[in-house]
Predict the structure.
Amino acid sequence: RDAIVADLSTRANRATNFGLIEFFDNFGAVLGILLSIFLVQLIPLKTLFLLAAIPSFISVLLIFFFIQDAPLLKNTTQLSNNGIASPPDQNQGTRNDAMGWRHFGKNFRLINTSNLLFSLGFFSYSFLLLFLQAKNFALVSIPIYYLIFSLSASLFSWGSGHLADKQSRRLVIA
């Protein structure tokens, strides 16, 4: 999804477009929270969790039965240490050899390692919920605070992306 947005965006609107994606991600969380607050009063919690697992289960089945790996070609290229494609080794031939972490370029490994570290920022949701529970907020009110948190993230993401297109991106990130 991000690659498609990057391909369809210009330098002038790239941050706005990515901000829009974040807006919809967080707004989807807002709608999910509202739906869960409504449904938890109608359906037992255990049943609600089982219902929430159904889309994931269907996705796994679709991947398992309908998605197949493309066969590995003997003459495929691999990425060199600087991220540029290079001819394959003569020893290469199995899928594990071609797709191993060490076969990707340094830049690819760096961006994925950075992505892993920055993804840890999503733990802030969990810390907010634990903080509220530790401060003895009513258990019923915790989803409301999570809703406010997600709504704030949703509202600020699109505007921040637009601002990043108009101003220095580094200034907006700071």
Observations:
- The longest strand covers residues 78-79.
- The radius of gyration is 22 Å.
